[in-house]
Design brief:
five-stranded parallel sheet, 8 helices, UDP N-Acetylglucosamine Acyltransferase, domain 1, alpha/beta, 312 residues, 2 domains, 40% helix, homotrimer, serine acetyltransferase, domain 1, 12% strand
């Protein structure tokens, strides 16, 4: 009726086999004296940043102009330390075959440079909120958007990650955007360049690739892919990394649900509208409207043929 | 080797710049003496409601008919207080330009009215579970569905949120359904009206808009959008809010993966079947089967042409 | 100004109505003396397994070859106990109409058999990481993939769940893969059979059904469905469970974003490429390339007709 103690004697042998596998497939270990950045710590940093960027909406409430400066000062001080530590880990790890370098000092500089950007980030994010309100008839108030629009959450985390990416911080930006991807279903690579007043509605399934360039006042819907058409390969058949593989979307473009736009040379001219489910691998000039030809549907009526248990 | 204390002297200046931005872009702050509802508190309320609706499956175990009344009484008492507090915050916030009103008392009434609906919700949810079992050959038992079907989780939270929406509770219903969206990839607006025995299979990417009307015994698959075709605008080009923009789906309709149905005047007649990937912007009568015309595919065989490194 | 105590007198009556509903719709209760497996405990087991499979990346850091054996030994010991308890609950529940059986002892055997598989799982997962690096030009390092690729997370949890499924453990494998589905948007049924070096890029919206068979070196993108074409029904119109309903994908196949492949008799021959958005319900021989015919798009230019407020 209870577990059998003698069976537990297998455990040390299992332990040894697992540890042995750490020596045999080393590419999925990280054993050593220099820790990697911590995903938990980075998620905590994002929560602090959300409190700074949208005060009064998240963890800390009852803020008013009389006490907010203490709250902000405290968060900024803590973020300085947390960011410095995590960035130093990422930098040290990246430079592995270690040329000596004062990673702490370099990390601190980057942390402070990043924190200086926060007011500008707020100006940018306010425009994103206004774009969401203007673009969605279901939005009841700015508050509703800040509180619960997944598109805004994904864009906010992307804009944070993109700043760190611009400061050449390794690993951490991608951990941040993949955290947003997990929460929202929206996958924006931190390397993408996105203008102001950007709105993603619903958003699940959106993919925006590393080398995308997106202008101002662009609006996209759920399931839109801005992806690669083909990967250039070198003489050995290995993928060449770092080329522009993803499209350019100019200002004031709208892209409807589940449209797919592919290729590094593809440019969608400003004020264009790309319809739902369109699959596009070439450029279109400004002010173009692209729609699916009215698709040929096979429509069967009950008079034609009765299909009681029809299953596709 | 360590961080530089003199660099930290920049932090007060950064703090001031952030606080200054709170005065300049005020639409993404909430500073003041009346707190907003708390997202964390609302997630906690949902966890309590899951325990009430599906006893024995979630946090509290070892429940039996001998002790369950204490468990339920305790949850109901706590929910009364938590709901009253959060609803009062939402009501006070909504009515901002404050006509005086006893928000606590109004909130308490709504909380109690909502709690009275729970037995009816259970009857409705049992039918949703039966519909899932009848409709999915991979379902092994009712337990498996209650435990881990994301479709049931999204529908449960939608049905809770819809009741609060019917009671004119602001903000909270949308926070609830966006929480479900984050967990399941299924985005159902709390304003949608959905009949009994509703089943969503797999579900990631499903979008059901605010003014949808869905009948009984409807089944939909992943990636289905029930969306808006166009947004009516007023003379100034501003979106008009509150019109019916989303389709009506009558009883016993099945909609397969990634189909898109758009428009407030679009009615899918009862017992119809809409095939995978269909894009539909007009009504169809009852008992209609709509499928893509066998799509023209370009199929290349190795004899025709060898394409070893082909990439789309 | 405060809540009204006399209104609270409704709460006992509400409690009774809820408890009464437990007697009336019993299919969504679990009241009794034998608890079900706990979802929280299973998520905790997955976190322990991630620490074992990818040491140094997750919760525990500062591991090196000098201390890792203690860490592993401790995790293995704890997992033995946790797995035994949860598997025993699942087995006892499954066999309800209780033939007497020593569920604890049977569960312990299965737990130990599962733990023995961990080194092999690591070999398999290392190949999945290599496949991701080879297949994605945006991947900067193996570390980035282990840290934050949702495809790898979903595949890892699927491979764990599939081992338990092979050991005939009920309920728990599906709870695991639905947890992964919630975190990544990727829905892989634990019953599917998937070869080595499997890569899912981006991944949101992917559905891989229960009876899929997937070979080695297969790569798939976001939104791909490997699903059922129709459900065989018995004479009473009830779905027949357990038949092969989902496709077979042979070695070295690539399936691009949002393609849909349906049917238990559908076989995609090795080295084939299935293009983005293709909808396929029949087999294709090896080395086939399937693409959408260049879709007919309706492209309107501003010279033709001005469409300033166009909305689809």
């Amino acid at each position: 009726m209870a577990s059998n103690p003698s069976l537990k004697e297998a455990l040390p042998e299992i332990t040894d086999a697992i540890v042995e596998s750490y020596m045999m497939c080393q590419r999925i270990n990280h054993l050593g004296h220099f820790p990697l950045p911590s995903r938990e710590a980075i998620v905590d940093i994002l929560a602090d940043l959300m409190d700074l960027l949208y005060p009064g909406y998240h963890r800390r409430q009852n803020l008013h102009m009389g006490n907010v400066v203490y709250h902000v000062g405290d968060l900024v001080d803590g973020l300085h330390d947390k960011l410095t530590q995590q960035i130093a880990r990422a930098l040290r790890h990246e430079s592995q075959q270690g040329q000596e370098c004062d990673f702490e000092a370099l990390a601190q500089q980057k942390a402070i440079e990043f924190l200086r950007k926060i007011p500008d980030l707020r100006f940018l994010l306010e425009e994103d909120v206004l774009a969401a309100y203007a673009g969605d008839p279901a939005a009841k108030s700015y508050h509703e958007i800040v509180f619960c629009y997944p598109g805004l959450e994904a864009i906010t985390i992307y804009r944070i990650a993109h700043e760190l990416h611009q400061l050449s911080v390794p690993l951490i930006p991608r951990i941040m955007t993949e955290y947003a991807h997990s929460k929202t279903g929206i996958d924006i690579h931190p390397g993408a360049r996105i203008g102001h007043s950007f709105f993603i509605d619903h958003g699940t399934g959106v993919v925006i690739g590393e080398t995308c360039i997106i202008g101002n006042h662009v609006k996209i819907y759920q399931g839109v892919t801005l992806g690669a058409l083909s990967f250039p390969r070198d003489a050995d058949g290995k993928i060449i990394r770092g080329k522009k593989r993803h499209p350019t979307i100019e200002d004031e473009v709208v892209i409807y649900a589940n449209a797919t736009i592919l290729g590094g040379d593809t440019v969608i001219g400003h004020h264009s509208v790309i319809g739902s489910n369109v699959w596009l691998t070439h450029s279109v000039p400004p002010h173009t409207v692209v729609q699916l030809e009215k698709p040929s549907l096979r429509i069967r009526r009950p008079d034609d043929e009765l299909v009681p248990n029809y299953q596709i």
